[in-house]
């Protein structure tokens, strides 16, 4: 069976293009803009409001507007249109109180920047009471009017789970996956807007990053801003707006619940073209292989070693694979101070630029838990000398050039489970303030797995699905039938490669003997076993300069572990029979530590507590020169 490659297949574009055209023909929504909503004698009825009015004199100054007493005929209509089909759609309701001093302070900041609002202001998702409150705070002239924006709610059956399905038919074998159409805001009368003010709901307190209404309002506001060239957006909410749609670097000022943005309209316009959720594949801004040129010097592949020198060999092989794929982008590796100079020298020779980082602890992790320091990945956002990075785990191989991914926005990734993305391959846009955002919420947001993947999925709930061939997991699910297994195996081995990225889950190839995939010998790892994928990794290894092979040698303890597992498999008479294979890997005979008699370890295996690194103390000769041409 042919596996279609979505990125080299024009068909997908054609089909999607045709579909979106036919959808445009039958646009369901009708947006009404009302620009005549002044109420002249709108004196605040409560003393409290009076206080707000006084505070908001700043706004009056900003606008230097004057009250005009005409056009109120349409107010009742504007307001009745505000309700969702007669009833109020709870998904859009926000109970947040508007703090006029914050609003005023934020707008004041704009005028201080000499960018006073000089045109109409669009209002989205404010109720009747709030609109009349706004009217007491903003005066209108012929040039400066309040425009009530209308947005139809999305169908009730559109849930977060339906926007972010676990699986979609990427290869389009049965159907063309498609996302629901979300209603848009459109200006019926082409009124130029200078500012859009949007009140965002938060349906579930402290947990609103997966609210459909909240997402819809932001996408609708972004769409209107991009299409009508609206320079500023003001959100009223107590929780940060979608960080990769309205990046914090575009935040002009925030005061409490008032967030004022000055978006890059070109980029916003591109992001609005993306599918609403992961219900479809997100296609690169500039589609098709080879088309993407990008800003070579501001783009890099990045990986990280979590204080684990056992991954050094993996990272070296990954670098080799990237160069073999024909990419000349920078390679950057984040390491902490526990990685020795010896290992650093190997990484550098492989092409990695080394950045030493301070680790970041997950405050919710238990002491010494395996994932205690996994939040170190947040440091990726501090690589601000790059505009875009492709993060890759250190245990994968790039089989085909994936430079086109640099054309994708943050966060583009493959699906994991449920509504989540897999953080093994992701497109990231470094930004100091995004880093700060990640750090600011470290105590309140809980990661489902205690790792960065769980955390990032809480922050970046609006992510873009790339084909799974860009992070193809080396494993077989229990449910995989024979046909699926064969197909996967064929993909692991295909030459020329069909997969872009092969992610080595389970026991890593360099920690096995090269003769066969040692995942076969442990029942809990058998689902990760594939000799074909194993062999592929070793091909890349063999293509590495020979000086680098020493970083892939086996410690005595690992040899003992492998032999132990083999004996267990033999005792259990595993049907695959790999335990019968005679090991010819020359690394078996090479000792790199002072525990060389590893066979004697086996006598007490399981009784002894071997501490990591015991006796493993490679003495540099650091390698300084590499004579082999690559
Ligand atoms: C509008 O929202 C505010 C804030 O939640 C609330 O106090 C007010 O009662 C609402 N007004 C109407 C007409 O629903
Ligand atoms: C929602 O219901 C409509 C029909 O009313 C249907 O066409 C659409 O596919 C449904 N969407 C989802 C996400 O279930
Ligand atoms: C957040 O909301 C989702 C669905 O709305 C729910 O499944 C999840 O348990 C909630 N999480 C927290 C921490 O409240
Ligand atoms: C995804 O899988 C992890 C681990 O298997 C589990 O803890 C988590 O609840 C799952 N998430 C969803 C949304 O299904
Ligand atoms: C981000 O912060 C670092 C210091 O932590 C600084 O060197 C760098 O210039 C900043 N980047 C930008 C784009 O401001
Ligand atoms: C956390 O880091 C460890 C290495 O220290 C790594 O083995 C593990 O896969 C990481 N876990 C997650 C969930 O990222
Ligand atoms: C494990 O190590 C600890 C401390 O090094 C020691 O007290 C203990 O006896 C060891 N256990 C075994 C089974 O060797």
Automatic annotation (TrEMBL):
InterPro entries the UniProt entry points to: Glyco_trans_8, GNT1/Glycosyltrans_8, Nucleotide-diphossugar_trans
Keyword Cell membrane: no
Chief location: Golgi
Keyword Manganese: yes
Region (Disordered) location: 1-28
Protein location: Golgi apparatus membrane
Gene Ontology biological process: cell wall organization
Pfam families on file: Glyco_transf_8
Gene Ontology CC entries for this record: Golgi membrane
This protein's UniProt keywords: Cell wall biogenesis/degradation, Glycosyltransferase, Manganese, Membrane, Metal-binding, Transferase, Transmembrane, Transmembrane helix
Family assignment from sequence similarity: Belongs to the glycosyltransferase 8 family. Glycogenin subfamily.
Protein name, as recorded: Hexosyltransferase
Species of the source: Lactuca virosa
């Amino acid at each position: 069976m042919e596996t279609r490659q979505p990125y080299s297949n024009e068909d997908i574009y054609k089909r999607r293009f045709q579909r979106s055209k036919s959808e445009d023909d039958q646009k369901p929504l009708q947006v009404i803009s009302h620009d005549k909503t002044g109420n002249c004698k709108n004196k605040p009825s409560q003393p409290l409001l009076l206080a707000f009015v006084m505070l908001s004199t700043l706004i009056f100054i900003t606008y230097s507007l004057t009250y005009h007493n005409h056009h109120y005929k349409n107010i009742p209509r504007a307001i009745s249109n505000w309700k969702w089909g007669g009833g109020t759609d709870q998904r859009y309701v926000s109970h947040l109180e508007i703090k006029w001093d914050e609003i005023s302070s934020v707008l004041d900041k704009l005028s201080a920047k000499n960018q006073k609002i000089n045109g109409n202001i669009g209002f989205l998702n404010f109720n009747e009471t709030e609109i009349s409150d706004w009217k007491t705070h903003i005066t209108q002239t012929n040039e400066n009017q309040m425009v009530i924006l209308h947005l139809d709610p999305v169908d009730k059956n559109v849930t977060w789970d339906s926007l972010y399905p676990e699986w979609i038919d990427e290869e389009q074998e049965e159907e063309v996956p498609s996302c629901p159409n979300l209603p848009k805001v459109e200006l019926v009368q082409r009124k130029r807007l200078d500012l859009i003010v949007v009140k965002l709901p938060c349906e579930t307190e402290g947990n609103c990053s997966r609210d459909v209404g909240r997402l819809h309002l932001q996408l609708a506001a972004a769409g209107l801003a991009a299409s009508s060239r609206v320079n500023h957006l003001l959100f009223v909410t107590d929780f940060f707006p979608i960080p990769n749609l309205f990046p914090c670097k575009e935040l002009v000022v925030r005061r409490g619940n008032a967030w004022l943005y000055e978006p890059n309209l070109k980029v916003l316009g591109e992001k609005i073209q993306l599918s609403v959720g992961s219900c479809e594949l997100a296609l690169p801004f500039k589609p098709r292989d080879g088309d993407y040129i990008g800003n070579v010097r501001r783009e890099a592949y990045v990986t990280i070693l979590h204080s684990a020198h056992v991954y050094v060999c993996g990272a070296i092989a990954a670098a080799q694979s990237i160069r073999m794929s024909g990419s000349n982008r920078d390679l950057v590796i984040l390491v902490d101070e526990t990685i020795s100079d010896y290992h650093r020298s190997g990484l550098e020779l492989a092409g990695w630029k080394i950045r030493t980082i301070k680790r970041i602890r997950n405050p919710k992790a238990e002491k010494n838990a395996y994932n205690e320091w996994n939040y170190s990945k947040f440091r990726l956002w501090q690589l601000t000398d790059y505009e875009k990075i492709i993060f890759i785990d250190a245990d994968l191989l790039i089989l085909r050039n994936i430079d086109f991914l640099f054309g994708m926005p943050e966060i583009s990734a493959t699906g994991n489970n449920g509504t989540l993305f897999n953080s093994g391959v992701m497109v990231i846009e470094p930004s100091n303030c995004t880093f700060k955002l990640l750090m600011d919420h470290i105590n309140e947001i809980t990661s489902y797995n205690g790792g960065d993947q769980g955390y990032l999925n809480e922050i970046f709930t609006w992510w873009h699905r790339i084909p799974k061939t860009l992070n193809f997991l080396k494993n077989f699910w229990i449910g995989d039938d024979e046909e699926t297994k064969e197909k996967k195996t064929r993909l692991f081995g295909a030459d020329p490669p069909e997969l872009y990225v092969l992610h080595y889950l389970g026991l890593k190839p360099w920690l096995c003997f090269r003769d066969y995939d040692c995942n076969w010998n442990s029942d809990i790892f058998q689902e990760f076993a594939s000799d074909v994928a194993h062999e592929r990794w070793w091909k890349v290894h063999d293509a590495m300069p020979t000086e680098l092979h020493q970083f892939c040698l086996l410690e005595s303890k690992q040899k003992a572990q492998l032999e132990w597992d083999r004996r267990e498999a033999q005792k259990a008479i595993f049907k695959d029979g790999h335990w019968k294979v005679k090991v010819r890997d020359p690394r078996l005979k090479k000792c790199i530590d002072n525990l060389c008699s590893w066979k004697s370890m086996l006598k007490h295996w399981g009784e002894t507590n071997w501490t990591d690194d015991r006796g493993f103390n490679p003495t540099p000769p650091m390698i300084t020169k590499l004579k082999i041409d690559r």
